[in-house]
């Protein structure tokens, strides 16, 4: 039986470990702080799931497959992983992204509507559409419960015979131009395996500095939760959908759920972030800018109190494509990362794909290959389609 060690129990690593185990491999899953922990890119309360990607149809197809798997696992886990609230896109300019996304969704058999602002305002009177030029409605999209999902995946993995270990792998990983025999833990122990998958999110550059380096940049992202008026259900699921405001910046939000508050965040890449020791306090400037936006788009929440916040991070590649590939100098080492702010929802599909690569020797899609980086590149802002 093939023994595979997966390092990282977030969206990419957890689902990969589960898919490998279900294909009969002996799998050891290792994480330094636990699935969905506060330092991980897969931590936090919720994530958007949608299939709108403009002309990047590879992601539309992947998102649709992931949605199928999320739905199946939601039933298996007894519910509570996914909410089909729908996703409302608001465009402040005539952007080709909307038309390309709608065409790709229709071609894939997914429902989508193009709305005039006045039609959207009639459906969602709690939103101000004054400066919106066009609207797109993705009814089968919604949001996922992130940390809960990571925990469920690891629980399922263990229940199905996988081995989970909370420990830190010593870095960097040196392959010396040959296959890797074992990884060493910070405490001195080692784990031997036939193959290894490193799904370590923002730490990938530290783990493989020679191969990745700045090709995975880590940025600080602030998330806010605002309190709604007592008894006011206009901003809660199901009255309120997930929404994205596509202007000079891309703002997005998730309706009130699990009594946490109205979630809102700026999708623009923030400043560099140390994922291990960086401050997790939000900035006064960020709160002020978000309040100003809310006053325009959600007038009833102009004076809403800040009831919670969190600082997470994006780990982005220069082109915002994932990295799903074999290590160029070690044939039994695979790298899965570069979520670039849009990877969490893809976890089930990525796990399925990685299991085929590791166990069957299948070649990864060239879109995600390391070979696309012909020369070292510095990280930067992610392309707007992400």
**N-to-C SSE series?**
EHEEHEEHEHEEHEEEEHEEEEHEEEH
Task: Determine the mean pLDDT.
Answer: 95
Please identify, by name, the CATH architecture.
Answer: 2-Layer Sandwich
CATH class: Alpha Beta
CATH topology: D-Amino Acid Oxidase, Chain A, domain 2
The fraction of residues assigned to DSSP E strands is: 15-25%
Shape: globular
Report the count of strand segments. Answer: 19
CATH homologous superfamily annotation = D-Amino Acid Oxidase, subunit A, domain 2
The radius of gyration is 21 Å
Low-confidence stretches: 375-381
- Main β-sheet: number of strands, strand sense, barrel status? 8 strands, mixed
The order of strands across the largest sheet is 6-7-5-14-15-16-13-17
Task: Tell me the number of helical segments per DSSP (H or I, 4 or more residues long).
Answer: 8
Structural class: alpha/beta
Distance between the termini: 39 Å
* Count of folded domains: 1
| Helical content band | 25-40%
């Amino acid at each position: 039986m093939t023994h595979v060690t997966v390092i990282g129990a977030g969206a990419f690593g957890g689902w990969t470990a589960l898919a490998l185990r279900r294909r009969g491999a002996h799998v050891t899953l290792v994480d330094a702080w636990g699935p969905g922990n506060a330092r991980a890119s897969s931590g936090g309360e919720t994530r958007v799931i949608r299939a709108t990607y403009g002309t990047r149809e590879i992601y539309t197809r992947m998102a649709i497959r992931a949605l199928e798997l999320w739905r199946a696992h939601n039933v298996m886990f007894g519910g509570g992983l996914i909410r089909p609230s729908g996703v409302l896109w608001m465009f402040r300019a005539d952007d080709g992204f909307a038309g390309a996304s709608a065409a790709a969704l229709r071609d894939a058999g997914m429902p989508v509507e193009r709305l005039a602002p006045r039609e959207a305002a009639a459906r969602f009177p709690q939103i101000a559409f004054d400066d919106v030029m066009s609207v797109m409605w993705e009814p089968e999209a919604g949001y996922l419960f992130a940390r809960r999902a990571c925990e469920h995946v690891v629980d399922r993995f263990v229940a199905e015979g996988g081995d989970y270990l909370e420990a830190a792998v010593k870095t960097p990983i040196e392959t010396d131009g040959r296959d890797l025999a074992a990884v060493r833990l910070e405490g001195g122990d080692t784990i031997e395996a036939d193959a290894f998958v490193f799904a370590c999110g923002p730490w990938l550059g530290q783990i493989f500095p020679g191969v990745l380096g700045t090709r995975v940049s880590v940025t600080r992202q602030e998330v806010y939760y605002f309190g709604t008026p007592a008894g006011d259900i206009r901003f809660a699921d199901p009255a309120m959908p997930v929404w994205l405001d596509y202007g000079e910046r891309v703002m997005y939000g998730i309706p009130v759920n699990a009594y946490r508050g109205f979630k809102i965040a700026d999708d623009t890449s923030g400043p560099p972030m140390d994922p291990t020791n960086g401050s997790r306090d939000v900035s006064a400037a960020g709160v002020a800018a978000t309040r100003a936006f809310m006053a325009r788009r959600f007038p009833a929440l102009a004076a809403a109190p800040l009831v919670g916040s969190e600082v997470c991070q994006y780990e982005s590649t220069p082109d915002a494509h994932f990295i799903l590939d074999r290590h160029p100098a070690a044939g039994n080492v695979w790298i899965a990362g570069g979520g670039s702010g849009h990877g969490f929802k893809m976890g089930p599909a990525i796990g399925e794909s990685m299991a085929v690569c590791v166990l069957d020797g299948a070649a990864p899609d060239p879109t995600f290959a390391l070979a696309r980086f012909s020369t070292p590149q510095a990280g930067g802002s992610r392309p707007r389609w992400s």
